[in-house]
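As a warm-up, study this chain.
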Amino acid sequence: MKRIVKKQAAILAAAALMSLMTACGGSGETADAEQDVKTEETKTPEELPASEEYTSVDGVYKVTLLEGLEQTDMQLQPNSSMMGLEGGSGHQGFSAVSMGSPKTNIPGNPAKMDSLEDFADHVVALALDGLGVSVDWTDVDAEAPEGAERCLAREGIARSGGSKGQAYGYYIETSDSYVALMFLGNDDDVEDARKVMKLEVLGEGAAATGSRAFVSSMTAVLNTVNGASIMDTVKGLEEMGADDAQIDELREQAALSLEDSWGVEDTAGLLEMADWLMNEGHNKDAMDFLNGFGGTEAADRAELEAALEGEDDETRNSALTAYDAWTAYGDAAISAWDLSRVGTVMSFGYAAGYCTYEEAMDKSLEAAVKAQESFGSWDDFNQSYLYGYAYWTGEDLQDSGSSAAERAGIIDNLKSQANGPFSIDWNMELNKEW
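Now compare it with the structure written out below.
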């Protein structure tokens, strides 16, 4: 999934950036210098380039840059978004990428994220890796905006082959989030952009509402593990006009994932898998497995533990987890684990071209309605999800070094986010919005 986020960032920047790399090199340096002098002669010292404010799709941050840039947006994960700003005819070759994210939920699965410097490196890698563009960065002084704990600014020369242009990056750290702005272009545009540039953190953004957001929240844990929602990513790229080759590559990745992880190879297999998850799934497997040890007939957990004596750790963990889930949620037991993955498998199905966006969302909505009928809150849903994951892996949820405990930590982080995925009303009325 990290590759998908990289491709998404690259599409936001690539077209204008490659135009820059073609236009800024080669002959004409003397003429450019003469033009710079003429431009300076016509400006008063107080004159600034025309600027405009651009607000992220989730309302978390705002960018001030050159006037008339074309804005494109993508919601990568709950509370994590990316903005592209391209110059078009007014500032041909100018391109900017901005991204904001909670520290605990950074898109793209960065291998290391211990500092603002790590975040800056991560954003540059997302935006530029694979484009044949390199930048020699140098740290420069910059003023931190109000509300920021610190900031980092870097400038450099962007090179592609024998061509070059300017690059500038500005990064903000608050108590709980990182925000980035990076732009590239010819000398005049970048220098003008730096004169008017401003990056502001607006606060917590707007709380997500509606059935679409509810469905997204059901898959928030795995989307965090993967680095982004594949359905939102592919849909966003299509709406942004990504070329067929780029979309086809993502479709191939999604189809391969479905085949390897789910045994799904076509539309019929996709729908069959989604229906199995909703009607049987691992929940039925868990109850059958538990009953194999007399679990639902056991007087208490201690009696089940005695019946499991001599079994291997994985068997014991799975049986005891199934018992705990059944004790807590009855026949619904670990069904949240299954229901959450209806949205995941349909998302990959959409990305693979096995269903339309509407079909994927319709099936995900069915799973959401069943989740509301089976559980009373996000806390219950998430606990059932964790029971299901622990049953599936054969791990002990109390083992702090297990992947099950890691999933529990992700849920805690998502719960702590203001207006995060689990802040949406669990009891909201679910309707088709697409």
